[in-house]
Amino acid sequence: MNEKPFLFASLLLDRPGFRTARQLGKAQISSLLRSLFNGDLVIWRNFPEPLYLVERKGLHELDFVPTSPLRDEAARVEAAKDARLQMATSLRDHATRYSWIILAHEDVIALRNWDHLFENVEEDILVSRRTDGELDPGFFAVKSEVYERFIENWNKWQNSQSLGKQKGLLAGVIEAAGLSMIEFERGEVVRPFEDGTGILDTMEAAVVHLAGGKPEEKTKLAFALHMMHTFGDKDGLFLDLMES
Amino acid sequence: MNFEETFPLRYYVNLGRREDRRTELEWNLDQVGVSIERFPAVDARFVRNPRGYANKGRYALALTIRMAIRRAKQKRAKALLLLEDDAILHPNFLELVNRIEMPDGWGIFYFGCQHLQRPTPHREGVVRVTRALDAHAWAIHESAYDEIMHSMDAARYPANHYAVASDQYVADLQDRIPTYSCFPNLAWQSCDQSDLTGTVYSLYGKTGAQTIRPQLLEGLMTECLAPEVEGKPVKLGLLFLTRGDVHHPQIWREWVAQSPDDIRIFSHPKNPAELEGGFLEGAQIPEQIETAWGDVSLVRASLALLKAGLEDDTITHFALVSESCVPVQPLTRVLQKLKHDPRCQFGFRDIEKASEVSKLRFQSTQGIPEGCWRFHQQWWLLDRAAAKMVVRNDYTESFKKIVASDEGYFGTVLAMEGYPVDDLVYNENVTWTHWKKLEADVEAKMKKLGRTGKAGSPENHPTLAKNHLATILRSDAIFARKFPPGADVGNYRFHQP
Predict the structure, then answer these.
(1) CATH code for A6-243?
(2) What is the DSSP letter of B210?
(3) Less crowded by CB within 10 Å, the N or C end of chain B?
């Protein structure tokens, strides 16, 4: 059992007129709160409307303005790379209060409590692997003891043209920082759009990363999975309420 | 032993997706004060080939165990404790385990298991396993790590080898690796959907006794705890907790006369002078406790009777009775019954089924694990092994603030001492009693105080009503009460063959 709580951070970046990141972020944070997430949640968002009008304990919503305009999806993706590093770097001073710092993209949702994923782990970083063998930068966790070193090397990696670039962000930073890593328990982190995980295995997972899906597909599936786990019961009470 | 020092590395294996079991087990561990880390189980969904095991699930479990042992080796742990996530630990687990002295040279130790062959007594609370299955709660000494890991490589066995599960491979080692288990079991499995078979089952009773091949263990409790009466004929110790002499001495005399060598009387009277010339004369035990109604002194007096009875090492069973009791079955039949069904007998309820009155009475008590509470009448029949368990530790201080603590002490203490009460005790009152309901005004007052339930007082029967006569005849009670002097109960000759 980890004695210190976790810190979860996610960046929500929407282009003007879009609400995909907001909707995914809402499903993400709601799913974490509903599965009794043990720790604090930090959201950086570029839209003024808060996720929750009524404050949620442990959730910190911070306004963020990207340095360049998000004219198209490519610009949004590019801006997100810098913004994520900026957000991760900002957590450095707080890291020691936590056991693990979990960094996720906006399209990650929780279907169960996550405590067990971090128990009894001796390595520095917890990762999952995509079907192409690359480490998934959309969901990983760093032990607080090595967070400073991790961020330092992430900054170096981001600003370098050569440093481990051929390996991808996460693998490159981990190697450069000389950190140890281990994959999350098999079956607990899935990417149904990307690796074709079936519906049954998706429903059994603790973490669903919706990478690879189109925005509308992601928001629909995030909504469906979250609603199913949070309000679904064998008697169908929620449906009765909605239809009454 | 010191639990944490003896088992420095403690894991429970659990699939990520079995959050239900994780939650349940962690709650149970928290209740019993044991700290055990989770070890992620290999998920059978990702196993391609069962490699000689019965199915992918069995292979996945074996793989998980091997990985846990490998981790223990890396950490140079001198012993590894492994739980499966459907394990249930006895509510008084830590206390009972800490009392155990681990056998020298042990290699495998089960906190609970399913014996396939009769084990042999080793020392209090521990038996030497000859062949047993299950892996829901066991420990491995470092000296056995390699052999167990090696044994679980099913691929090295011939294709037609009988064993298809990891616990079967381990069972094959039990004649080589010194293997012991707790007895009675201090850990068992919940009745839950199995990840291995997909079915809902448990091979254990509610309090841990094995339900498959129970005949293998018949008499083992006596062999372990009361070997002095093993194989001896039934002899009943009648423990009279009374004010003076019995109300119906003639009935008792006729009853005892049916088999005088198979019965012995012990008496603890409140007023010893009243025994003179009576049925109980000469049966008084030396220890005299000043008793009061509803007070823990009644428990202490009962314990004194039991201890005095235990000094006679030919007595196999003990029954606590009062002056207003009479036997309602012939002694010869009782002895015959105990010969073939030697179980303890008293009607009991656990905390979930207890009346509100019982719960209210006992809720102020501290230091008694909630799962151990058993509520029952004051009157019981215990076999010698259970009697020895009840007297081996004195818990009367913990019970002294409870009104009528004698209506919970014996069953609760048996449970605390590890006796599988729900599985081994015949749950029927040994003494028939009719409880008179409270008068309406008293009940209303009780309700106002928030005290609901079926509280009342045992009814006196100067004449036996027809409906009561029928219930006595239908019951499995050996005795009945309360019959004042002059009552007509003797006319029915219940006690005669």
Answers:
(1) 3.90.550.10
(2) B
(3) C
For residue B107, what are its two tokens?
Answer: 């290699």
Q: Is B227 on the interface with A (CB under 8 A)?
A: no
Q: How many structural domains comprise chain B?
A: 2
Residue B68, CB half-sphere, CA atoms under 13 Å: how many?
A: 30
Residue B1's pLDDT band (cuts 50, 70, 90): very high
Of A1, A120, A188, the CB nearest to B16: A188
What DSSP string runs through B347-384?
-EEETTT--HHHHHHHTT--SS-GGG-EEE-S--EEEH
Kindly report, residue by residue over B68-116, the tens digit of the pLDDT.
Answer: 999 999 999 999 999 999 999 999 999 999 999 999 999 999 999 999 9
ipTM beyond cut 0.90: no
Asked if residue B322 and residue B377 are part of one domain, the reply reads yes
B247 and B190 in a common domain: no
**Is the same domain home to B234 and B146?**
no
Q: Cβ–Cβ of B19/A1 closer than 8 Å?
A: no
Give B407-423 pLDDT, tens digit per residue: 999 999 999 999 999 99
Answer yes or no: is B47 within a domain: yes
**What does pLDDT average to over chain B?**
92
Does some domain include residue B308?
A: yes
pLDDT tens figures, B167-201: 999 999 999 999 999 999 999 998 876 666 667 67
The half-sphere exposure of B488 on its side-chain side, counting CA atoms within 13 A, is: 7
Strand bridging mode A139-143 / A100-104: antiparallel
User: Which residues in chain A are contacts of B46 at CB distance < 8 A?
Assistant: 186-187
B19 touches chain A (CB under 8 A): yes
CA-only gyration radius of chain A, Å: 18
Q: B142 vs chain A: nearest CA distance in angstroms?
A: 20
Which residue type occupies B88? I
C-beta atoms of A185 and B40 within 8 A: yes
Given a cut of 90, whether residue B429 has pLDDT beyond it is yes
pTM of the model: 0.90
Same domain, B194 and B254: no
DSSP B342: -
Distance from CA of B37 to the nearest CA of A (A): 7
Tell me, yes or no, whether B223 lies in a domain: no
What are the residues whose beta carbons fall under 8 Å from the beta carbon of A77, sequence distance 6 or more?
Answer: none
Domain hosting residue B443, numbered range:
229-492
The CATH number covering residue B106 comes to 3.90.550
Nearest to A204 among B17, B37, B40 (CB): B17
User: Between residues B419 and B365, which one has the greater pLDDT?
Assistant: B419
Q: What residues contact residue B353 under an 8 Å CB cut-off, 6+ apart?
A: none
Q: Nearest Cβ partner of B19 from A113, A186, A201?
A: A113
Indicate whether B203 and B343 sit together in one domain. no
Q: Do B19 and A187 touch (CB under 8 A)?
A: no
Does residue B482 lie in a domain region? yes
Residue A34 exposure: Cα atoms within 13 Å on the Cβ side = 19
